[in-house]
């Protein structure tokens, strides 16, 4: 014949051997827990916790966890940094990024000598996983047309023209 010990708060009476879950910690996320009906402790059996990731992060796993009788939460969750699609390399140029293609990363386009940048020079990875602005391109500089010249003559395969 065993004895069950109880401890209590003004609102709740719980046996010492009742199932408890460890407190939830989510890196880059916030946890909002509600104790079971009439309960006070937010890690007791039946506790429900809502998980929300901070700006720039997205939730992988369930958005609501429940403390189960096996003393474990109903799912494992993680908040991963959002990532934008890889930028296309512009012909006759390139780009360099700070922090890759993750949220808040900035990328700057550049062009090879003789080409001019068309579009946004700098783009930023936004919270909606899209880049700000349109991808840039590099266009060749237009050469001014030659004006008519006067043939001055030549010898040995060389010709001279004066403009």
TrEMBL record:
SUPFAM superfamilies: Complement control module/SCR domain. The keyword Disulfide bond applies. InterPro entries: SRPX-like, Sushi/SCR/CCP_sf, Sushi_SCR_CCP_dom. It comes from the Eukaryota. Keywords: Disulfide bond, Glycoprotein, Proteoglycan, Signal, Sushi. Pfam families: Sushi. Disulfide bonds join 111-138. CDD domains: CCP. Residues 31-81, 82-140 form the Sushi domain. Residues 1-18 form the signal peptide. GO terms for biological process: phagolysosome assembly. The keyword Disulfide bond applies. PANTHER family: HYR DOMAIN-CONTAINING PROTEIN, SUSHI REPEAT-CONTAINING PROTEIN SRPX. This is Sushi repeat-containing protein SRPX. It comes from Camelus dromedarius (Dromedary).
